[in-house]
């Protein structure tokens, strides 16, 4: 039986589960590397700016994070914002200053305890977000698994930069499948699926070898064999079918990667607008991913959202200082981390450390990894996120849960993460208002004696039902308004009662208030 997690100590990750966290960190690294490169490409930023922010997201945000399972790095959801900001500000160094300032704003958010915003998102919407990201992952990785790598790895948008969309890209790929990519991705998926069977799990060594690592090694060896014996089938850098990490041959080249922000542009209003946009959007994405990560965590630990915002702020401050992209908590990396068996945030630090070592020393070796093998890993992660079991479970919970779930799934797939969440949230709010609207007020009578009882807290959404009940009271009635069960009464409700009291004087209606909070606000 595994040891329970020790109490969290500030600044020091736990090494109690290092045998689980080290392999998980390696798996997250394999997933994160092409995503970091692809998001930098899509953002119109320097190629290695994504890797730099991935390193900081692992080593710094992972160290300070309010979550044991969340993994941070550059986010595809910010790629469009980043691309537009770089074009508007004119120089990447000026944009780096905006990233630095966004970090300062996020730290302020954390100390102002703004992290609680994630608690207002309905569970059905969070589950819809996870399912949508899972479906998008599977659909987006199909072209890479078949050898078509024109669209960057990590693109989550429906409309793509190559003028195609998620579905037309797949159709275009089917007509030009690469046999080598198909072979590698098929073998990789077979290994990943087979690793989940009881027979493989019955061997003790299966828990020591991460299947994602085995897939990467197998895919690389298969491609090297194809290069030697069947060159026409092999995957090449010329067709962008392999990892493309720039090779650093000297310490000077490594230092040149970092770009200091242009502090002289701090007075530009556009810099502050960009910083505020990145801080707000990045904070919302991080909080949503944090909430989703807690739901995926088998131990159901509750993360500290305010601490997470402060950690993200420090990460963005440092990322802007050295020329990296904006950082958020990312559900793709976080879910890969969980499914790889991570127990503590040590895995996030490990992934950041390996990214740093890879950038400095391992480029030549990593550039032989086929993207088809990495696509197979992401397809497996996507399948677990888009759990049909969860979908069926939500369907059984009724329309009030299933409709926000489905709206979130469809909206995210058709637009982007934040727009989809907003659509699901609005539908969820409709059902909340509908639920609160019903049975908030009870009206009973015996002859001309009426009792109007508040059954719950009364907000503006209950105003319609209240006025409907008040209209049912005839002239000359004696009315008792009882608020014993209500701990909160909204001002709109007081106004409705006040209007009824005014008309009651002309209709011969007597009114008595019992335990109605703030009844002194109602003019007699």
Description:
This protein is mainly α. It has two domains: 24-177 and 246-353 and 370-393, no CATH class; 441-521, Transcription Regulator spoIIAA (2-Layer Sandwich). It has helices at 18-42, 49-64, 79-89, 92-111, 123-145, 166-174, 179-194, 198-201, 211-229, 251-256, 269-296, 305-322, 331-339, 346-361, 363-366, 371-385, 388-396, 399-414, 417-437, 463-471, 491-507, and strands spanning 72-74, 327-329, 441-446, 449-454, 478-482, 510-514. A four-stranded mixed beta sheet has the order 3-4-5-6, covered by helices on one side. The protein contains 21 helices and six strands. The model is unreliable at 1-10 (pLDDT under 50). It is 59% helix and 5% strand.
Quickly describe the structure:
With 524 residues, the chain is mainly alpha-helical.
Globally, the shape reads elongated
Largest sheet: 4 strands, mixed
* Average predicted confidence as pLDDT: 85
| N-to-C SSE string, H for helix and E for strand | HHEHHHHHHHHHHEHHHHHHHEEHEHE
Question: What is the count of DSSP helices, taking H or I runs of 4+ residues?
Answer: 21
Q: Strand order, biggest sheet?
A: 3-4-5-6
Quaternary assembly: single chain
Radius of gyration: 28 Å
Structural class: mainly alpha
Task: Domain count, please report it.
Answer: 2
Percent of residues in helical segments? 55-70%
Strand percentage, roughly?
5-15%
Instruction: Compute the number of strand runs.
Output: 6
Poorly predicted segments: 1-10
N/C terminus separation: 69 Å
